[in-house]
Here is the input.
Amino acid sequence: MARSRALVYTGPKNNGMGSTAPANKLRIGHRSLGERIFVSRRRIQLYNAFERVASGLLLVTTLASVLAVLFIFIFIFKEALPFFREEGFREFFTSTKWYPSSAEPEFGALALLYGSAIVTLGATLFAAPLGLAVALFLSDVVSFNVRQVVKPIVEVLAAIPSVVYGFFALVVFAPLMQNQGGIFLAIGLTLILGPTGVILSVISADLLAGAVPEKARTPVRLASLLVFLVTAGSITFLLARAVSGITIVSGTNALNVAIVLGIMAIPTVVSVSEDSLTAVGRSLREASYSLGATRAETLFRVVLPAAKSGITTAVILGVMRAAGETMVVWMASGNASRIPSPFYNLLEPVRTITATIAGDMGEADHITGSARYSVLFALALVLLLFVFICNLASKWSTQKVAHRAKVRPAGNGRR
Here is the structure.
C-alpha cells in the first residue's frame, strides 16, 4: 500500500493521555499506517538548508557548462573578427586559392569547406543506413540475450582513439586503394549492397504479402522474395563489375576518409537509434500484430514513425561526429586544397577545415594577430556554427515530435 507522508506543525496539543506534545515539534504522519512520529524543528531546518545548498550547487554546475560554451563562442568570434574586417567575406567563401604563407597571401576557403562537406556527407551516407539497419536488427529481430552481446561490441568502436583509425586508414586502406583500387571497390560494394539487398528483399516481400488475402500470403511471399533476391543480386553484380576496372591514383582521398569516418559514426547512430526504437514499447508492436500486420508493416508503419525523432537525432549526432574529426582527415585525406574534378569524385585528395586548423596553427601561432592567424579562427567559427546549427536542428526535431504528440486529439469523436 502506498504510504502518504504529511508534515504538519501542531504546537501544544493533548495526546489523549493527559500530556501534550512539545511546542517545538513537527508531526509527520503516515496516514496509510496511522503512525505518528515527531521530529525536531531544527532537523527540518537543517534538511531545508541542505536542500537549498544542493540546489545551488546543481545550478552552479549547469551554469558553468553554459558559460564555458558561451566563452568559447566569444573567444573564437573575437579572434576571427579582425580577419573579416581586413579581408572581407567574398574571397573567403568564394575563392579556392588557399595560400596563407605566400608573399601575397590568399585565403580562399571554398575548397576547405567543400572538402569538409563531401567527407561528412559520404560518412553520413555510409553510417546512417547501416547504423539504422543494425539498430532495427537489435531492437526487433534478435533476442534480448543476443542484443546484450552485440550492442556492447558495436559500442566498443566508439572507444577506439581516432589516431588509431587514422593510422589504419593510412597504412591499410590507402595502399589497398592505390594498388588494387578496382578490386577493393568491387569487394566493398558487394559487402555493402549484398546484405542491404537481402534485407530490402525480405522487407519488400513481407510488405507485398501483407497486401494480399491471408491464404495467399505464403506463396506470394516466397515468389516475390525470389524475384527481389535475383534482382538485387543482379544489380550488385553489375555494379561491382563496373567499378572493378577503376584505377585509383592516390589511396589518401575523400573516399578513404568517408569510409573510416562512417565506421567511427556507426556506434553513435546505432546506440541512439536502438534506444529510441526500444522506447517505443511493446504495446504498439503487439497492437499492430493483433490487427494482422506483418513484422515489416509494423516496423515501417508503426515503429519507425514513432521513433523518427530519436532516429533524426542519431543521424545528426553522427554528422557532428564526422564533421568534427581531425586526426583521420589529417592523416588520410591527402590534404589537397582544391575541389575534385568532377565535384562528386571521392577518389581524389581533399582538405578539410579541421585538418587545416590542426596543420597550420603551429606555423601561424608565432605571428599572433596576423591574417594567417585570424583566418584559422574564422574557419573554427564556421565549423562551430555548423555544429551549433546541427544541435538546434536536433532539438527542434525532438520538440516538434513531442508537441505533435501533445496536441494530437485522442480521437475524432466517432465510434
